[in-house]
Amino acid sequence: MRPTLMMYSNPMKLALAPMEGLVDVHMRTLLTRSQAFDYCVTEFLRITNQLLPERVFTRLCPEALNGWQTPSGTPVHLQLLGNDPVAMADNACRGIELGAPVIDVNFGCPSKCVNNSMGGSILLKEPESLYRVLSAMRKAMPEGTPLTAKMRLGYEDKSRALENAQAVQAAGASMLCIHARTKVEGYKPPAHWEWIAKIKQDVNIPIMANGEIWTLEDYLNCQQASECDDIMLGRGAVATPDLALQIRQYQNAQAHDVQAWPDYLNDLLWMLRTTVDGGNIKFAADRIKQWLAFFKMQHVEASAFFEKAKRLKHHEEMEQLLIQEIALTPAATYHMVTQ
Ligand SMILES: Cc1cc2nc3c(=O)[nH]c(=O)nc-3n(C[C@H](O)[C@H](O)[C@H](O)COP(=O)(O)O)c2cc1C
Asked: Do 238 and 315 reside in the same domain of the chain?
């Protein structure tokens, strides 16, 4: 019997995607505060051929010191990336000893550097590699801890998508999340959600759909095309921090509040201060600009603000600008959207 993710009893699960360099402990804290996500996933931990020390795990996932939960109580899964079955198994077991509730494996990373050392999406060229890595991990891990995988539809093309999903299932994984694009397709729209429905016909383990969900409407379209109830949100959750809440409230047939620009300004200020308090002083202003680049994709007000912020380098200047902007911006006006 493979362990399940039944600890998440929601009939339509929502997960916050792992995003290296973007969704760190602070972003996870902020994006899970509404409790709309069933779980989130760490940025990937790169495994070569060594057993990593405890401090590496806790640096990647400070929530390990809080029972692998964000402050709002949302579970955090540990993601590993690598191709050495023994090292992956050993590090999975260390993560579990440290309390990780679920181990996830990254077969989607498109980075040249990672792919050149045979990690991430390049393994999709050989479904046997997925099987080798996952089955070694599954054998070594305690029976009760779920092992999950996240993959793209392929590397150059989608010809081995079904075989890859079957390999994940055969190796004993409990769930597979599919980012509906190949490595070569990168992040270019569209995401090919209909491919997920094809794969679902061929495997029995739960499948979660991912890719290009920016709005409630995208979520509904993705569910329909992928025939998946369970969805992972990536950049859309960063661009619209209340997207998961909008979806959850829609599912519960509640009227839902849509956050407005003043709320997002307060989120930005919180992030700036939290990043500084966390000791990452040099990076704090850049992080706000990085986040604004995502806001700009979905919110017109963010473009004008980005113009004011883009040349600022110091966190004090950025803090002043945010405080001024908050003072100038009318208080949050929630749009009540009824169904
Ligand atoms: C900046 C960035 C970093 C990412 N890092 C990871 C990662 O560490 N692990 C992983 O499995 N996927 C990673 N991804 C892929 C996302 O988890 C997700 O699959 C992808 O962004 C597609 O979903 P979206 O269109 O909703 O953003 C990353 C994506 C981005 C944009």
From this structure: no
Place of tokens 């029972």: 67
Among the atoms of ligand 1, which is closest to the Cα of residue 17? 17
> In which domain, by residue range, is 324 found?
260-330
Residue ranges for the chain with pLDDT beneath 50 = 334-339
User: Looking at 238, 256, 274, which one is the last position of a domain?
Assistant: 256
Tokens of 299: 């919110």
Alpha carbons 230 and 182: distance in angstroms, whole number: 20
Which atom of ligand 1 is nearest to 152's Cα?
Answer: 19
Same domain for 170 and 247, yes or no, is: yes
Give residue 43 CA to ligand 1 midpoint distance, Å. 9
We report the CATH number of the domain holding residue 318 as 1.20.225
Q: Mutation test of ligand 1: which of 16, 22, 179, 196 has the most ligand atoms closer than 8 Å to its C-beta?
A: 179
Q: Please pick, among 61, 109, 222, 228, the residue that the annotation labels catalytic.
A: 109
pLDDT for the residue numbered 332 = 55
Q: Where are the beta strands (DSSP E) in 164-298?
A: 175-182, 207-210, 230-233, 256-258
